[in-house]
Amino acid sequence: MDLLRDVLVTLTIVTTGLSAGVLAGFGYAVIPGLSRVGADVAVAAMQRMNSAILNPLFAVIFAGGVVFGALTVWATWNSGLRWWALAATVLTALGVVITMVVNVPANDRLDAAGDVRGEAAVKVWSQFTAVWVPWNIVRSVLTAAAVAVLVVGLLVG
């Protein structure tokens, strides 16, 4: 059981960490970079990223923190790590819920705008970032906190 537990903890940390990195990277580099090139390019580029990110590898990374986290909670239930694993999984799940309730619908609205230019693109980009950016910060912090909680749990538990 120790090997299974260790594998599950590792998979939880890796997938949650990768997810946190992707989310944070969008926040501190991708969206600011797109905003600097102007709305015409930003809208079109983000629409392409929205379709490109829907792939099996990202699905494993994004869902892995919750799935592997839940399995880690089960595998560590009789140890001091269980509450840390549970807290990390809840934090990760909250990030996923925000993604599904706020960020994905914002992506869908952006995609539905189609090929927009000029003032229409400025309006679409502004509406998108006004919703997407603050909630991306929240989900980035939640998933990064989940990694930290699990690592601390390993160190103290």
How would you portray this structure in words?
This protein is mainly alpha-helical and 157 residues long. It is 89% helix and 0% strand. It is built from five helices and no strands. The longest helix has 39 residues, at 118-156. The protein is elongated and about 60 Å long. The protein starts with a helix and ends with a helix.
Topology at a glance:
Layout (H helix, E strand, L loop, with lengths): L1 H36 L1 H14 L3 H20 L6 H31 L5 H39 L1
Helix pairs in contact: 1-2, 1-3, 1-5, 2-5, 3-4, 4-5
Shape field: elongated
Number of helices: 5
Arithmetic mean of pLDDT: 97
Strand content: under 5%
What ranges have pLDDT less than 50 throughout 5 or more consecutive residues? none
How are helices and strands ordered from N to C? HHHHH
Distance between the termini: 17 Å
Give the biggest sheet.
none
By secondary-structure content and strand pairing, the structural class works out as mainly alpha
Gyration radius, to the nearest Å? 18 Å
In which range does the helix fraction lie? over 70%
Task: Give the tally of β-strands.
Answer: 0
